[in-house]
């Protein structure tokens, strides 16, 4: 009898000790990614989820993809508290009106510098991009509200805003979730999509490389690249790709005779890398690098 009682006590203790350990294995937050279409330039929209609430990073470019993102949020069963916009490029916020209508209680936010950039550039963005988007573009393009802190709270967990720093835009920001080592870097990181270098002189290219070094130093386990070739994992491979591309770019520019030659050199160096909008990224980036067109203003 005593032996059976001791065995029962031991089993009870083992169970009580095992339960907290199992709970500790469950991450406090998780990330789900929606891969948008080529029409939205293969932007990744990410949903950071807690037990009940969620934060969305980067609404997409087209209305169609924004509706897909809204469906992802609804399917999650979470309450959307915030929508965070990483930077001023329209493929990362243009269709946010869909999400604003679907989730009217969610705060749409960005770093104050990003908000100022969007308001400054919104009139010519509408002129530049609306004709191509046609009915798939927004009716009421707008800007997020300015954050008053560098931290967004999600169920007591910190989501830290990094930047602004040089990325494919001079004022790029990222969201860092230290508890799960998740990095949502927007267009500071690409993964096997040609980097947008149409707004860069050589100094800006070098500064972007320094920004990537800063992100690598975080040692993230999850990295959701701003743009990625479909089928790639959300890991540090995007950081490695972006770092190598930025390292090789000045060397390839120095070897090239003109923009067309530079395009061939880049494609040979990065043969599996894709482009969007009929080679929009590489054609314009190489023409800027070779002085065949002025640096873009976005």
TrEMBL record:
Cited CDD domains: metallo-hydrolase-like_MBL-fold
Keywords noted in UniProt: Hydrolase, Signal
Signal peptide range: 1-23
Molecular function GO terms recorded: hydrolase activity
InterPro entries recorded: Metallo-B-lactamas (IPR001279), NDM-1-like (IPR050855), RibonucZ/Hydroxyglut_hydro (IPR036866)
SMART domains, per database record: Lactamase_B (SM00849)
A Pfam family assignment: Lactamase_B
Metallo-beta-lactamase domain ranges (all copies): 42-227
Protein name (record): MBL fold metallo-hydrolase
